[in-house]
Amino acid sequence: MKRRNLFFTVCLISLAVLLMIPAYAAPKVTLTIWAVDSIENTANTNTAYVHALVKNFQAKNPDIKIDWVAFGTQGSPLNDKLKIALANNQGPDIFQSWGGSFMGQFADAGKLLDLTKELANVKTSSAAKEAMSWKGKTYGVAPFFAVAGLFVNEGIFKQYGLSVPTTVEELEKVADTLKSKGIQPFAVGAKDQWPVLATYMYLVNRYGGRVFEDAVARKVGFNSEPFVKAATKYQEWAKKGYFGDKPLSEGYGDAQLLMCTGKAAMQISGSWLCGLYSDKTQTDQTIGMYPVPIIKGEKGLVTDVMGMTDVGFAATKIGAKKKDAIVKFMKYAMTVEACSAETGRVSSVPGVKPPTRLTGMAADNILAKAKYVQFWWDQDLPATVSTPINTTIQTFFMPNTDVKRSLNKFEELVVDNMGPIKKK
Predict the structure, then answer these.
(1) Which of 46, 87, 104, 414 supports an S-S bond with 134, CB 3.0-4.6 Å?
(2) Quick one: 14 exposed, middle or buried, by C-beta within 10 A (0-12, 13-18, 19+)?
(3) 0.85 exceeded by the pTM?
(4) Is the pLDDT reported for residue 25 higher than 60?
């Protein structure tokens, strides 16, 4: 009898141990994700989505561990690391991506994981899906899509009886009034290079319509008339002091601070700032977001919008054996539940309510009315010319710069890397 009891006791203990093993076993799959945003800084409104995404995904999928590696919000450290790693068949299973041709170069090199079938039924906007596709194949998802517009300090405008401008002529009158009141018309952050791009993209479009596409197709040069006119206007605004006395000394963080404190009244930038400018712990100013004005008599339309993926994820072939886990992550990233954690960005997922009035303005005033979306040039152009376009625009802030000569020099670089203008 004692032996029988001992036998049953041993069996029960063994069974208990077997039941406990899964609870303490290591995760079956580890997904390495390289990103720009950190998931650690929960006080930063820009990281609310990714923080909640990783936390909740792992809670729902205990058999999948996320190894999240953040490289910083500038983007270039991540992109530079990806170029080296993927070229040597190393790197992450997933990386944070804005899509476009930068992602496309990895697809062309056979480094990305084709998820066209697996993500076919994911609900999203056509613009977001296009951003994460290349030559007919889908490599990831874009839960948030950014659009650039005109941020306006509505309190300051009301104080001085100013109306939100709809033409560049009206914009310049507003800027002159603001300057006369001791308020910097525009915050920009020219020191950090990339913030100068949105304004120039809009000016080129407002003069030449979709001329950028022609320049990429090598039908016209990047030194053609619309590009020169836009550069001249940019330089004219800099000379007038619209960007402050020392715009090349002002970083992007400085630009945000100027807007948050009411020292600058306007900014042409992306909808990723909606969270910050809606956060009452960050600013006591009332800020709205509106379409960038048009230029009377020129080709650009108010429905022509500059924008691109704000938060996107692309998969690499390094994670081919983990495809099921990757697809789970991608699909969860595109759920209403996951996207509802975002505090400011414009979601591409149907059913996600704008978290703030400002985000709603970006969605309703700009994205919803867009008939054409031009991706950020420094993401859409080949990597060999993407950084030089921003450094070229920086020269427009210098009063003695010959903008035509600067654009001629850039066009020479484009010819070397993208080919000469095609003969008709």
Answers:
(1) 104
(2) exposed
(3) no
(4) no
